[in-house]
């Protein structure tokens, strides 16, 4: 018996949304896929909602009938301010208003390491460390984490904000030897966030069981997430292909990596 009647997945056509679309299927009778382009390969248990998160009316309408929302939509990277404002900040507010108006009981939000990207690697921070965004993208993650806190305290909507580090098919560089989150572990993390008996308002880091550990995620142990993968099988390949890093470079010093080297995105126009 599925735990949920209907789960809405925003960003369902993206890199991680595509994995969640498959991995979360056993948890709901219906998975509603949200994106800006039409889906042409719907399974029998799937339905589609095509809209832009910046459109408040359409976004709220897409949350109707959903008892859980997996919110992975929005700007996928550092972007000009207007893009961040419309898709990630306004869009997430629209999601939470939809949850409030239509009675969704839990939201799982794709936050990011970039919400705390200016903490030093050797600081070994926990989930309660002060926010230190490394970009406008990171600022938008901080906004939604605060928004979700408000909606828990005031309206009783549970949220888990997942500070995902580097989720790709395999580690692409030396940094990812400690920041790697496998696709399978990403699905396990979201599944744990959806199935834990109580989450209230929880922040959790999203990394696999890598040998090199840079953060303390014990404050989210109540989720029951058990990563099964590691970057170690890729270590030899990465170290052979990538030269040693400069320990003084911002991209090496801080958790946010190369985001800490970026200039203001609007300066690039």
TrEMBL record:
NAD-dependent epimerase/dehydratase domain location: 7-168
InterPro entries: Epimerase_deHydtase (IPR001509), NAD(P)-bd_dom_sf (IPR036291)
GO function terms (MF aspect): oxidoreductase activity
Keyword Iron-sulfur: no
Domain of life: Bacteria
Statement: the UniProt record of this protein carries the keyword NAD: yes
One of the Pfam families matching this protein, by short name: Epimerase
Keywords: NAD, Oxidoreductase
PANTHER family, sorted: 4-EPIMERASE, PUTATIVE (AFU_ORTHOLOGUE AFUA_7G00360)-RELATED, NUCLEOSIDE-DIPHOSPHATE-SUGAR EPIMERASE
Family: Belongs to the NAD(P)-dependent epimerase/dehydratase family.
Protein name per the record: NAD(P)-dependent oxidoreductase
């Amino acid at each position: 018996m599925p735990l949920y009647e209907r789960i809405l997945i925003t960003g369902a056509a993206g890199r991680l949304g595509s994995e969640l679309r498959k991995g979360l299927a056993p948890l709901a009778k219906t998975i509603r896929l949200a994106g800006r382009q039409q889906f042409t390969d719907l399974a029998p248990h799937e339905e589609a909602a095509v809209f832009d998160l910046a459109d408040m009316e359409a976004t709220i309408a897409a949350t109707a009938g959903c008892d859980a929302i997996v919110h992975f939509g929005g700007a996928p990277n550092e972007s000009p301010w207007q893009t961040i404002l419309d898709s990630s900040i306004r869009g997430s507010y629209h999601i939470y208003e939809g949850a409030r108006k239509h009675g969704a009981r839990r939201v799982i939000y794709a936050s990011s390491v970039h919400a705390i990207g200016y903490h030093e690697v050797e600081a070994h921070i926990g989930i309660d460390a002060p926010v230190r965004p490394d970009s406008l993208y990171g600022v938008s993650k901080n906004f939604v984490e605060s928004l979700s806190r408000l909606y828990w305290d005031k309206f009783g909507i549970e949220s888990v904000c997942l500070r995902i580090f580097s989720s790709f098919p395999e580690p692409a560089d030396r940094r990812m030897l400690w920041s790697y989150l496998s696709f399978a572990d990403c699905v396990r993390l979201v599944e744990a966030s959806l199935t834990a008996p109580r989450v209230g308002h929880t922040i959790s880091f999203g990394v696999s069981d890598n040998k090199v550990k840079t953060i303390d995620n014990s404050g989210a142990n109540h989720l029951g997430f058990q990563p099964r993968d590691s970057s170690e099988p890729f270590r030899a390949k990465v170290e052979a292909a990538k030269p040693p890093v400069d320990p003084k470079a911002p991209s090496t010093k801080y958790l946010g990596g190369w985001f800490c080297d970026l200039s203001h995105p609007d300066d690039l126009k």
